[in-house]
Design goal:
8 strands; about 10% helix; two-stranded antiparallel sheet; globular; single chain; amino-acid biosynthesis; hydrolase; PRib_AMP_CycHydrolase_sf; Ubiquitin-like (UB roll)
């Protein structure tokens, strides 16, 4: 019997992109990366745990900010190379900029325009950062 993790097409670095999606509204909150360990822990702990490529370590979403993503469902796409984590975003802030979603800019007239407000000042979220 094969392990469900073996069905995933990991990239050459052992990673797969993960889309965090609000399980109620279906809004895309953010994109991050998973490795085998982080995905296994995400399922085990029922919260989003990513692999930080810049820090080269596990990143439990909300470990510093308190904005935890409670897991509701994991989906694998048809090519087995992208994951969707359907989550409940605790605190209603997914972005390190203090916004609900990391996708807060829209291209209008060949310019990126911010269309979503800051819900909480990042300095207040990441004290000492």
């Amino acid at each position: 019997m094969s392990n469900w993790l073996d069905d995933i097409k990991w990239d050459s670095n052992g990673l797969i992109p993960a889309i965090a999606q609000d399980y109620k509204t279906e809004r895309i909150l953010m994109v991050a990366w998973l490795n085998r360990e982080s995905l296994e822990l995400t399922v085990k702990e029922q919260r989003a745990i990513y692999w930080s490529r810049s820090r080269k370590k596990l990143w439990r979403k909300g470990e510093e900010s308190g904005h935890i993503q409670k897991l509701h469902e994991v989906r694998l796409d048809c090519d087995a190379d992208v994951i969707i984590l359907r989550v409940e975003q605790l605190g209603n802030i997914a972005c390190h900029t203090g916004r609900h979603s990391c996708f807060y800019r829209v291209l209008k007239d060949e310019q990126w325009q911010t269309v979503e407000p800051v819900l909480k000042d990042p300095h207040d979220i990441y004290q000492g950062s």
